[in-house]
Amino acid sequence: MPEIAPGAFHYPSFLEAAAQTALAEEIAKVIAVAPLYVSTMPKTGAPMSVRMTNCGALGWVSDKEGGYRYEPRHPQTGTPWPAMPRRLLDIWNELARYPKPPEACLVNVYDETARMGLHQDKDEADLSAPILSLSLGADCRFRLGGTRRGDRAKAFALSSGDALVLSGPARMRYHGVDRILPTINTPLPEALAALGVRVNLTLRRVT
Ligand code: MD6
Ligand code: FE
User: Which Gene3D superfamilies is this protein grouped with (predicted)?
Assistant: First the structure.
């Protein structure tokens, strides 16, 4: 039932309210150590509308000169990323069905106007590992396309507490966030509420 396309699993309300609050508190601690930053696009240097940080051994970064890549340190503080909370490793073990632990957790913070263009996650050396995402706060309209950019996409809402796994034949599907849905709004838990309206975490195996 959660399999919405071969290899793509959507678990609505996977995290109940108390688990969302506990996760938000841990992510707030991550952000306190590894402040949110604005990434820029390769080549153009255009800023992304989403603010980011990471936890885990590696973090996803992007800038004009270096492009998309994983780095062991925060691009502004130069400090290693904070450890991945145990809670996230447990969720990976429950949902990812992959023998090795995630090495990176990208934290994306959206305000009401932020979006994420259609993309493939392909900066990981190990493309056989799934990517697992968790959403907190406002609903968004999420678009899941095919493995070619022009393929027909299906759009659905990702809501607070939802988990999404892209694995196997779905791992290289294009996807993005069309927009935040302001009307059907779950506020972010208190610990994160000052930072934006929606937070998405993506857990990745990199090497
Ligand atoms: C977001 N999510 O929900 C962006 N990528 O804000 C992603 O880009 C994503 O949800 C890979 C797997 C699951 C995802
Ligand atoms: Fe993605």
Answer: Alpha-ketoglutarate-dependent dioxygenase AlkB-like
Count the neighbouring beta carbons within 10 Å of the beta carbon of residue 38: 12
Question: Contact, 185 vs 179, CB < 8 A?
Answer: no
Percentage with pLDDT > 90 across the chain: 97
Of the candidates 107, 121, 109, 113, the one whose C-alpha atom is nearest the C-alpha of residue 179 is 113
Q: Give the pair of three-digit tokens for residue 92.
A: 């990976």
* Mean pLDDT computed over 19-34: 98
For residue 146, the SS3 value is coil
| Mean pLDDT to the nearest integer, 114-120 | 97
164 Cβ inside 6 Å of ligand 1: yes
| Phi/psi-derived region of residue 17, left when phi > 0, alpha when psi is between -120 and 50, beta in every other case | alpha
The number of the ligand 1 atom at minimal distance from the alpha carbon of 175 is: 8
- At 8, the pLDDT band (50, 70, 90 cuts) reads very high
Residue found by looking up tokens 């599907």 in the block: 173
- Distance from the alpha carbon of residue 38 to the mean position of ligand 1, in angstroms: 17
- Decide: 177 in ligand 1 pocket, CB within 6 A: yes
Which letter does DSSP use for residue 7 in this model?
T
The amino acid sitting at 122 is K
Q: Is 121 annotated as a binding residue?
A: yes
- Which CATH superfamily hosts domain 3-204? Alpha-ketoglutarate-dependent dioxygenase AlkB-like (2.60.120.590)
Q: In the chain, what are the domain boundaries?
A: 3-204
